[in-house]
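Re: that backbone. Tokens:
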């Protein structure tokens, strides 16, 4: 089997032209006896833009315990500092109910949410590419297993033919011995 069309017809029971692009790719790899596995993360990382890498970094940091700890520390510091200034000098830069802090939090959320969504969309695309690659690898493995089964079946058939030939020869020789014994 040297041509992808032979692989398609023999193993996939379909014409090569009727296959989708992924199945054609797998058939070519089976016919050429080449590997199909690759590092999809490395392939995907080559195509990322600086903005996408920044979105990934922001989402990674924004979803970490380090960010939560720093954010909690900033909030507590803001409230304590404003409360101290208000109690000491009777005038704070952001008195209770901390409207300026609410503005900053709203701005942070309005910027952080789309960036996290962009990172999630990229992760979804990575997952989709990984799933497609897994399908290709699994299909190739299944086709290779089918080829191995065919080879084992051919070997077994050849062994059965040899065993039958040996058994016929043994029966012929046994018949000759019996004839010799009876005549002699």
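Recovered sequence:
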């Amino acid at each position: 089997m040297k041509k992808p069309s032979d692989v398609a017809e023999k193993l996939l029971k379909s014409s090569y032209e009727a296959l989708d692009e992924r199945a054609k790719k797998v058939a070519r790899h089976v016919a050429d006896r080449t590997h199909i596995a690759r590092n999809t993360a490395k392939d995907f990382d080559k195509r990322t833009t600086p903005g996408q890498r920044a979105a990934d970094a922001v989402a990674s940091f924004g979803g970490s315990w380090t960010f939560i700890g720093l954010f909690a520390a900033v909030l507590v510091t803001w409230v304590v500092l404003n409360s101290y200034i208000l109690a000491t000098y009777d005038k704070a830069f952001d008195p209770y109910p901390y409207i300026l802090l609410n503005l900053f939090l709203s701005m942070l959320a309005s910027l952080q949410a789309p960036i996290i969504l962009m990172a999630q969309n990229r992760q979804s695309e990575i997952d989709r590419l990984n799933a497609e690659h897994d399908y290709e690898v699994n299909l190739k493995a299944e086709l290779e297993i089918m080829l191995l089964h065919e080879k084992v079946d051919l070997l077994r058939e050849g062994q059965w033919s040899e065993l039958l030939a040996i058994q016929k020869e043994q029966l012929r020789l046994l018949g000759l011995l019996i004839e010799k014994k009876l005549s002699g």
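Residues 35-183 form one domain. DSSP finds six helices and no strands in the chain.
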